Amino acid sequence: MxxxxxxxxxxPGCFQVLFFRNPALHPQALFSAPANETPYPLPEKMGxxxxxxxxxxxxxxxFVPTYHQLRLYQAxxxxxxxxxxxxxxxxxxxxxxxxxDILTPELLARNSATMPTERGHFGMEIxxxxxxxxxxxxxxxxxxxxxxxxxxxxxxxxxxxGPFKRGLDTYSSMEVTGIDRLNGTLALVCxxxxxxxxxxxxxxxxxxxxxxxxx
Length: 215
Fold this sequence. Notes:
Elements: E1 5-11, E2 14-20, E3 33-34, H1 67-82, H2 88-98, H3 105-109, H4 120-151, E4 159-166, E5 169-180, E6 185-191, E7 198-204, H5 208-214
Helix pairs in contact: 1-2, 1-4
């Protein structure tokens, strides 16, 4: 499983991370940390939903999640990635059931008086955590694809022959000028046939069109 964090309650007040494959998490998350059986700490204002973990989506942020954030991440991951649930209602119901021990009717009923949403504050927390989970999953897929590409000999300085179509542009060749192992991306300097100009782009290694050129 990619980008998954599984936790196990090992004693009152403690939990342990059982499975970890996500460089976006700080290594400190591997150690036992105090569990928190209090209700999920929902922001008072709708505009603050997701704010406490927004930086987690960036692979180089060294974000250290709290117990409640790990629980929410795990539930959203299972809903969206493992069970491939798509609709907001399905994801919401799955997460609420998974976190029933740290949710209360009062928390689930909290909503904005001026700009209410269908699923309230907690629904917005799920929405923003879903963004984090999807970003981590994309990065994980790109990292796996990058490993496969590098196993085929692609390195900084390698020239990949086209044609490589990206949007409205078609490039005849691409030189690899940088490799980001953490995000699974490549920096390319591209050329077009008949032009002296060069175009610099960054692209995820799992791009099918790039894979076709390499293969």
